[in-house]
Amino acid sequence: MTAQHAAWWKSAVVYQIYPRSFADSNGDGFGDLGGIIERLGYLEALGVDVIWLSPIYPSPQADNGYDVSDYRDIDPLFGTLAEFDVLLAQIHACGMKLVMDLVVNHTSDEHPWFVESRSSRHNPKRDWYIWRDAREAAEPNNWGSFFSGSAWTRDATTGQYYLHLFDRKQPDLNWENPDVRKAMQDIMVWWLDRGVDGFRMDVVNFISKTSGLPDAPTLPGHRYVIAVDEFVDGPHVHEYLAEMSREVFGNRDGEFITVGEMPGVTTDQARLYTDPARGELDMVFQFEHMSVDQGPANKFECLGLDLVVLKKALGRWQAALAETGWNSLYWENHDQPRVVSRFGDDSPAYWAASATALATILHGMRGTPFVYQGEELGMTNYPFQGVQDHQDLEAVNYYASVLDLRGDASVALAGLAAMGRDNARTPMQWSPGRNAGFTTGDPWMPVNPNHTWLNAQSQLAAPDSVFTHYQALIRLRHELPILVHGDVTPLMEEDPQIWAYTRATPDGAILVIANCGREPRTVEVGAGWTGASLLLGNLAGTPSALTSTLLRLAGWDARIYAAN
Ligand code: TEU
């Protein structure tokens, strides 16, 4: 966080592990810390610098750990604090760093703070959460939950309602209370003292709500509204994050990384959050490129991809944080469908090429790339057959709400299959064998049937696999400062099939170009690129230099050239 250490994470690549789906060492069907320890060699081989773990704290698991009931321990599902210490030591011994997921906007309703808070209107913890009286015998306002229904639940003990932007088992903390902020800072210090290297902060731009909690403008046909304007980048959020950074990292030496997950964040806000001079966060996860193919009020409404819109969304973020601030770069995480199925082409002929082309485009940009487990293998969406295949509460609640409103069930199921979070949560595909080598027991989520041919074991043995392409991209980022720092200039912005841009420093220039479609394309590149040498291509047999200004690209052909 301090100025002299500001740069290390700019050339780093982060790998996200969703522990319950990564590797199971004890046969209970859930991934665990022991499983991660066994697979550290795999991550070393991939070459990543930082590992981010989705939450492993004790939790009722209503939202798979994003509902924390104790911030200072490990859920027995995953292991013990002693095992955590072993994992951390081994990660450090491999030269990697560990980032914890910090869920601070809300806790579990089973956290002792909330148990106390709900016990009486006069309990000292009452004000740690957001309680309001009923309005005309109904919810205090019209805010909806991200997981369907109202964002308020009435608690019988006191008759008041508490706010939960997510599930009713995830009550929102009241960040206006300085004791809440101090408690969270203490938790962060506790983990840093244990040796962790930073935090990914869940929905951290939601922690400050508009004072008075006003109604959101109503939407026809909707009783509740996701009131983004009343909690996204709210009035005190910058003050709270600056205070957190000062109190937690202020006097601490070391190399840390902080990234705030920020649905709905704008480029102007992101520049403020990540301006090193303001001392808030190192980078944010923005969502603009994740919403280009979703309906504005309903993420399960699938619009299909317009590549120009996607290119411009990411291009805008590249430009906006060029001078001040820093981008994170990601295609996937535990909340998103698999990118090869979403923006690529997962048919047999183009699966590998489109997975590697999309990787090339993302890793060529300026920012810190994040790889989500299995993305480096080109893992695909799951062939969901019906609602019974979905485990995620967001999916289950959404389906129920559509049925409630007499909506079209088959459209809802198609939306869930395409956009559902469970796509990312099927077990990691290690081998062609039973349960893809994930567990010796019964996996908590079904394994994708394509693990027989799509798995780590076969890709590690193949010279031209999706895995080896990710390996090469990560190596390039470490070796070429121009990939880290070079200015980005988009090319052919209106082309619906070609994605291209240059990176440049006073010392050199790089061309990143991909054909994002099946049809071959011949593209005219500037005369300056004649003689450029190929740094990386994703198809076998790509010539090692550009010999003319006409570049012929096969379907899903992607290349990185260095100018001579
Ligand atoms: O997600 C925040 C978020 O707003 C979405 O991306 C979320 O996945 C949801 O689908 C919105 O429709 C974070 C976590 O990453 C997610 O796993 C949690 O469920 C959520 O916060 C609550 O903690």
Can you tell me about this structure?
The chain is α/β, with parallel strands linked by helices and 564 residues long. It has three domains: 12-105 and 178-472, TIM Barrel, CATH 3.20.20.80; 106-174, Oligo-1,6-glucosidase, domain 2; 487-562, Golgi alpha-mannosidase II (Immunoglobulin-like, Sandwich), CATH 2.60.40. It has 15 helices and 18 strands. It has helices spanning 33-38, 40-46, 81-93, 112-117, 178-194, 237-249, 267-274, 307-320, 339-342, 351-363, 393-404, 409-419, 456-461, 466-479, 481-485, and strands at residues 14-17, 50-53, 97-102, 131-132, 152-154, 161-163, 198-201, 257-261, 283-285, 328-330, 368-372, 487-491, 498-505, 508-515, 521-524, 533-537, 550-553, 558-562. The strands form four sheets. Strands 9-8-7-3-2-1-11-10 form an eight-stranded parallel β-sheet, covered by helices on one side. A five-stranded antiparallel β-sheet has the order 12-13-14-18-16. A three-stranded antiparallel β-sheet has the order 4-6-5, with no helix packed on it. Helix 5 runs parallel beside helix 6, helix 10 (351-363) runs parallel beside helix 14 and helix 11 (393-404) packs antiparallel against helix 12 (409-419). The radius of gyration is 23 Å and the shape is globular. The two termini are 37 Å apart. Residues 1-5 have low confidence and may be disordered. The structure holds 1-O-alpha-D-glucopyranosyl-D-fructose. The site of 1-O-alpha-D-glucopyranosyl-D-fructose has 14 residues, from loops.
